[in-house]
Amino acid sequence: MEIGAQLYTVREYTKTLEDFAKTLQKVSEIGYRTVQVSGTVDFNANWLADQLQKNDLRCVLTHIKPEKMLQNPQQVIAEHDIFNCRYIGLGSVPGGLKSMDDYLGFKEKFLPVAKIFKESGKLLMFHNHADEFRKSDDGRVFMDRMMEDFAPDEMGFTLDTYWAQAAGADAAAWIRKLNGRVPCIHLKDMLYEDGIKMAPVYEGNMNFDGIIAAAQESETQFMLVEQDDSYGKNPFDELKRSYENLSSRGYR
Protein backbone atom coordinates (compact mmCIF):
# COMPACT_ATOMS: atom_id res chain seq x y z
CA MET A 1 0.00 0.00 0.00
CA GLU A 2 1.08 3.55 -0.70
CA ILE A 3 0.34 6.67 1.29
CA GLY A 4 -0.80 9.84 -0.43
CA ALA A 5 -2.07 13.34 0.26
CA GLN A 6 -5.69 14.37 -0.16
CA LEU A 7 -5.32 17.92 -1.50
CA TYR A 8 -8.58 18.97 0.13
CA THR A 9 -6.39 19.37 3.22
CA VAL A 10 -4.60 22.30 1.55
CA ARG A 11 -7.52 23.54 -0.56
CA GLU A 12 -7.00 27.17 0.52
CA TYR A 13 -3.62 27.01 -1.24
CA THR A 14 -5.04 25.79 -4.56
CA LYS A 15 -7.34 28.70 -5.44
CA THR A 16 -5.22 29.80 -8.42
CA LEU A 17 -3.22 27.72 -10.86
CA GLU A 18 -0.02 29.37 -9.65
CA ASP A 19 -0.75 28.43 -6.05
CA PHE A 20 -1.90 24.96 -7.07
CA ALA A 21 1.44 24.39 -8.79
CA LYS A 22 3.32 25.54 -5.68
CA THR A 23 1.18 23.26 -3.53
CA LEU A 24 2.02 20.22 -5.64
CA GLN A 25 5.70 21.07 -5.24
CA LYS A 26 5.36 21.38 -1.45
CA VAL A 27 3.48 18.10 -1.16
CA SER A 28 6.16 16.37 -3.22
CA GLU A 29 8.89 17.87 -1.05
CA ILE A 30 7.24 16.38 2.05
CA GLY A 31 7.73 12.97 0.45
CA TYR A 32 4.31 12.05 -0.89
CA ARG A 33 4.33 10.45 -4.33
CA THR A 34 0.57 10.15 -4.80
CA VAL A 35 -2.25 12.65 -4.41
CA GLN A 36 -5.99 12.94 -4.58
CA VAL A 37 -7.11 16.08 -6.42
CA SER A 38 -10.06 17.64 -4.64
CA GLY A 39 -11.25 21.13 -3.73
CA THR A 40 -8.95 22.92 -6.17
CA VAL A 41 -9.34 25.64 -8.75
CA ASP A 42 -10.61 24.45 -12.13
CA PHE A 43 -7.74 23.18 -14.25
CA ASN A 44 -6.99 21.84 -17.69
CA ALA A 45 -6.22 18.12 -17.66
CA ASN A 46 -3.04 18.59 -19.68
CA TRP A 47 -1.87 21.25 -17.22
CA LEU A 48 -2.37 18.83 -14.33
CA ALA A 49 -0.58 16.02 -16.15
CA ASP A 50 2.42 18.31 -16.73
CA GLN A 51 2.50 19.49 -13.11
CA LEU A 52 2.26 15.97 -11.75
CA GLN A 53 5.14 14.82 -13.94
CA LYS A 54 7.21 17.87 -12.98
CA ASN A 55 6.83 17.06 -9.29
CA ASP A 56 7.18 13.26 -9.54
CA LEU A 57 3.58 12.79 -8.45
CA ARG A 58 0.62 10.85 -9.72
CA CYS A 59 -3.07 11.47 -9.15
CA VAL A 60 -4.75 8.24 -8.09
CA LEU A 61 -8.19 9.63 -7.22
CA THR A 62 -10.27 12.76 -7.71
CA HIS A 63 -13.42 14.34 -6.40
CA ILE A 64 -15.40 15.70 -9.32
CA LYS A 65 -18.38 18.04 -9.21
CA PRO A 66 -21.54 15.90 -9.38
CA GLU A 67 -23.13 18.02 -12.09
CA LYS A 68 -20.12 17.50 -14.33
CA MET A 69 -20.41 13.72 -13.98
CA LEU A 70 -24.11 13.86 -14.77
CA GLN A 71 -23.88 16.27 -17.70
CA ASN A 72 -20.85 14.90 -19.51
CA PRO A 73 -19.42 11.66 -18.13
CA GLN A 74 -17.47 11.01 -21.32
CA GLN A 75 -15.59 14.28 -20.91
CA VAL A 76 -14.77 13.33 -17.32
CA ILE A 77 -13.40 10.02 -18.56
CA ALA A 78 -11.31 11.69 -21.29
CA GLU A 79 -9.82 14.16 -18.81
CA HIS A 80 -8.90 11.40 -16.37
CA ASP A 81 -7.24 9.50 -19.22
CA ILE A 82 -4.96 12.48 -19.81
CA PHE A 83 -3.54 12.42 -16.28
CA ASN A 84 -3.83 8.64 -16.05
CA CYS A 85 -6.28 8.33 -13.16
CA ARG A 86 -8.66 5.38 -12.93
CA TYR A 87 -10.62 6.31 -9.81
CA ILE A 88 -13.22 9.07 -10.23
CA GLY A 89 -14.55 10.19 -6.90
CA LEU A 90 -17.84 11.56 -5.64
CA GLY A 91 -17.41 13.37 -2.33
CA SER A 92 -20.92 12.80 -0.97
CA VAL A 93 -24.56 12.36 -1.91
CA PRO A 94 -25.42 15.71 -3.55
CA GLY A 95 -27.76 17.62 -1.28
CA GLY A 96 -27.18 15.26 1.64
CA LEU A 97 -28.46 11.86 2.69
CA LYS A 98 -31.21 12.15 5.29
CA SER A 99 -34.00 9.98 3.90
CA MET A 100 -34.85 7.09 1.63
CA ASP A 101 -35.95 9.57 -1.04
CA ASP A 102 -32.49 11.15 -0.95
CA TYR A 103 -30.93 7.74 -1.47
CA LEU A 104 -33.27 6.65 -4.25
CA GLY A 105 -32.65 9.92 -6.10
CA PHE A 106 -28.92 9.39 -5.79
CA LYS A 107 -29.18 5.83 -7.11
CA GLU A 108 -31.33 6.87 -10.07
CA LYS A 109 -28.91 9.58 -11.16
CA PHE A 110 -25.54 7.96 -10.53
CA LEU A 111 -26.02 4.30 -11.38
CA PRO A 112 -26.06 5.13 -15.13
CA VAL A 113 -22.89 7.23 -14.66
CA ALA A 114 -21.22 4.34 -12.84
CA LYS A 115 -22.02 2.02 -15.73
CA ILE A 116 -20.54 4.48 -18.27
CA PHE A 117 -17.36 4.78 -16.21
CA LYS A 118 -17.13 0.99 -16.00
CA GLU A 119 -17.33 0.63 -19.78
CA SER A 120 -14.27 2.87 -20.12
CA GLY A 121 -12.21 1.09 -17.47
CA LYS A 122 -12.84 3.70 -14.79
CA LEU A 123 -14.45 3.23 -11.40
CA LEU A 124 -16.81 5.58 -9.61
CA MET A 125 -15.61 5.96 -6.03
CA PHE A 126 -17.99 7.04 -3.29
CA HIS A 127 -16.66 8.90 -0.24
CA ASN A 128 -18.66 8.61 2.96
CA HIS A 129 -19.29 11.02 5.77
CA ALA A 130 -21.30 10.05 8.85
CA ASP A 131 -24.75 10.16 7.22
CA GLU A 132 -24.15 7.04 5.14
CA PHE A 133 -24.25 5.05 8.38
CA ARG A 134 -27.80 6.20 9.11
CA LYS A 135 -30.38 3.43 9.11
CA SER A 136 -32.89 3.49 6.28
CA ASP A 137 -36.59 2.66 6.59
CA ASP A 138 -36.03 -1.09 6.85
CA GLY A 139 -33.31 -0.79 9.49
CA ARG A 140 -30.36 -1.26 7.15
CA VAL A 141 -27.69 1.41 6.94
CA PHE A 142 -27.38 3.25 3.64
CA MET A 143 -23.86 1.91 3.08
CA ASP A 144 -25.33 -1.60 2.89
CA ARG A 145 -27.84 -0.42 0.31
CA MET A 146 -25.10 1.10 -1.81
CA MET A 147 -23.13 -2.13 -1.69
CA GLU A 148 -26.17 -4.02 -2.98
CA ASP A 149 -27.40 -1.54 -5.58
CA PHE A 150 -24.02 -0.83 -7.20
CA ALA A 151 -21.95 -3.80 -8.36
CA PRO A 152 -18.30 -3.97 -7.26
CA ASP A 153 -17.13 -3.07 -10.76
CA GLU A 154 -19.57 -0.13 -10.87
CA MET A 155 -18.68 1.60 -7.62
CA GLY A 156 -15.89 1.43 -5.08
CA PHE A 157 -15.74 3.15 -1.71
CA THR A 158 -13.22 5.65 -0.43
CA LEU A 159 -13.83 4.65 3.17
CA ASP A 160 -13.21 7.70 5.33
CA THR A 161 -12.06 6.17 8.58
CA TYR A 162 -12.62 9.32 10.67
CA TRP A 163 -16.22 9.81 9.57
CA ALA A 164 -16.98 6.12 10.07
CA GLN A 165 -15.81 6.41 13.66
CA ALA A 166 -17.70 9.69 14.09
CA ALA A 167 -20.87 7.78 13.12
CA GLY A 168 -20.15 5.13 15.75
CA ALA A 169 -19.10 2.56 13.15
CA ASP A 170 -16.04 0.32 13.34
CA ALA A 171 -13.77 1.57 10.54
CA ALA A 172 -11.64 -1.58 10.42
CA ALA A 173 -14.70 -3.83 10.34
CA TRP A 174 -16.19 -1.81 7.48
CA ILE A 175 -12.96 -1.98 5.50
CA ARG A 176 -13.07 -5.74 5.83
CA LYS A 177 -16.75 -5.79 4.89
CA LEU A 178 -15.87 -3.81 1.75
CA ASN A 179 -13.01 -6.17 0.88
CA GLY A 180 -12.05 -5.65 -2.76
CA ARG A 181 -14.09 -2.44 -2.99
CA VAL A 182 -11.78 -0.09 -1.07
CA PRO A 183 -8.78 0.59 -3.33
CA CYS A 184 -8.51 3.98 -1.60
CA ILE A 185 -9.21 4.99 1.99
CA HIS A 186 -8.92 8.28 3.86
CA LEU A 187 -6.85 8.55 7.01
CA LYS A 188 -7.25 11.28 9.61
CA ASP A 189 -7.17 10.88 13.34
CA MET A 190 -9.74 11.81 15.99
CA LEU A 191 -8.44 13.64 19.04
CA TYR A 192 -10.35 14.59 22.17
CA GLU A 193 -9.09 18.00 23.27
CA ASP A 194 -11.78 20.40 24.53
CA GLY A 195 -14.11 18.51 22.22
CA ILE A 196 -13.56 16.20 19.27
CA LYS A 197 -11.04 17.41 16.71
CA MET A 198 -9.28 16.11 13.63
CA ALA A 199 -5.58 15.38 14.01
CA PRO A 200 -2.59 14.02 12.09
CA VAL A 201 -2.56 10.25 11.76
CA TYR A 202 -1.29 8.47 14.91
CA GLU A 203 -1.75 11.60 17.03
CA GLY A 204 -5.30 10.92 18.17
CA ASN A 205 -7.29 8.02 19.60
CA MET A 206 -8.15 5.96 16.55
CA ASN A 207 -6.75 2.45 16.22
CA PHE A 208 -4.72 2.94 13.07
CA ASP A 209 -2.72 -0.24 13.53
CA GLY A 210 -5.99 -2.14 13.30
CA ILE A 211 -7.33 0.02 10.47
CA ILE A 212 -4.20 -0.42 8.36
CA ALA A 213 -4.13 -4.17 9.03
CA ALA A 214 -7.72 -4.35 7.76
CA ALA A 215 -6.76 -2.34 4.68
CA GLN A 216 -3.91 -4.71 3.93
CA GLU A 217 -6.33 -7.64 4.08
CA SER A 218 -8.88 -5.89 1.88
CA GLU A 219 -6.76 -5.08 -1.20
CA THR A 220 -6.46 -1.36 -0.44
CA GLN A 221 -3.89 0.30 -2.69
CA PHE A 222 -3.76 3.88 -1.44
CA MET A 223 -4.08 5.36 2.04
CA LEU A 224 -4.74 9.04 1.50
CA VAL A 225 -4.10 11.47 4.34
CA GLU A 226 -6.82 14.07 4.75
CA GLN A 227 -7.38 16.67 7.45
CA ASP A 228 -10.39 18.85 6.75
CA ASP A 229 -9.54 21.31 9.54
CA SER A 230 -6.10 22.23 10.85
CA TYR A 231 -7.50 24.61 13.50
CA GLY A 232 -5.23 27.51 12.59
CA LYS A 233 -2.11 25.39 12.15
CA ASN A 234 -0.30 25.18 8.83
CA PRO A 235 -1.98 22.34 6.90
CA PHE A 236 1.27 21.48 5.13
CA ASP A 237 2.85 20.92 8.55
CA GLU A 238 -0.09 18.69 9.48
CA LEU A 239 0.36 16.67 6.27
CA LYS A 240 4.06 16.37 7.06
CA ARG A 241 3.39 15.08 10.58
CA SER A 242 1.04 12.41 9.21
CA TYR A 243 3.64 11.49 6.59
CA GLU A 244 6.38 11.19 9.18
CA ASN A 245 4.18 9.12 11.54
CA LEU A 246 3.25 6.74 8.75
CA SER A 247 6.68 6.53 7.17
CA SER A 248 8.26 5.75 10.57
CA ARG A 249 6.05 2.65 10.53
CA GLY A 250 7.24 1.62 7.10
CA TYR A 251 4.63 3.22 4.83
CA ARG A 252 5.65 5.47 1.93
Give a brief outline of the structure:
The chain has ten helices and ten strands. The chain has 252 residues and is α/β, with parallel strands linked by helices. α8 (171-177) packs parallel to α9.
Structural write-up:
There is one protein chain. With 252 residues, the chain is α/β, with parallel strands linked by helices. It has a single domain, classed as TIM Barrel (Alpha-Beta Barrel). It contains 10 helices and 10 strands. An 8-stranded parallel β-barrel has the order 1-2-3-4-5-6-7-10, surrounded by 5 helices. Helix 1 (17-30) links the parallel strand 1 and strand 2. The protein is globular. It starts with a strand and ends in a 5-residue tail after the last helix. The relative contact order is 0.15.
Question: Key features?
Answer:
two-stranded antiparallel ribbon, 252 residues, 41% helix, alpha/beta, TIM Barrel, single chain
